[in-house]
Design a protein that fits this description.
By secondary structure, the protein is mainly α. The chain has four helices and three strands; from the N terminus they run αβααββα. It has a three-stranded antiparallel beta sheet. The longest helix is centred in the N-terminal third of the chain and has 19 residues.
Length: about 100
């Protein structure tokens, strides 16, 4: 049986709030700015940032205490079409190319 942990749910919510805030505000954001905007403690935000950084979803700017989202987040993006649909669309075109060559 799966038990829902309210702390885990809150953590997931805060994680996405932080990522969305960074993305919406220029992608070079300080911990202080995130904490203030989301009304969270700076140490709480730092903990989330540290975890996201360790997982490779955020990186820190080399010259400042600002963080940005990495391209790793793109791997979670689902394209608006499926691979099966793409194959169905391309098959006739590829068959024509094959026949022509």
């Amino acid at each position: 049986m799966f038990i829902i942990d309210e702390n885990m749910i809150q953590s997931v919510k805060r994680t996405f709030q932080i990522l969305e805030y960074i993305a919406a505000n220029g992608n070079f954001i300080r911990v202080n700015d995130i904490a203030k905007a989301l009304e969270l403690e700076k140490t709480t935000v730092y903990g989330f940032i540290k975890s996201l950084k360790e997982l490779g979803y955020l990186e820190q700017d080399e010259l400042s205490p600002r963080y940005r989202i990495t391209s790793k987040l793109e791997c979670l993006y689902v394209p608006p079409f499926s691979l099966i649909e793409l194959k169905q669309e391309l098959r006739p075109i590829l068959e024509k190319i094959t026949a022509a060559t």
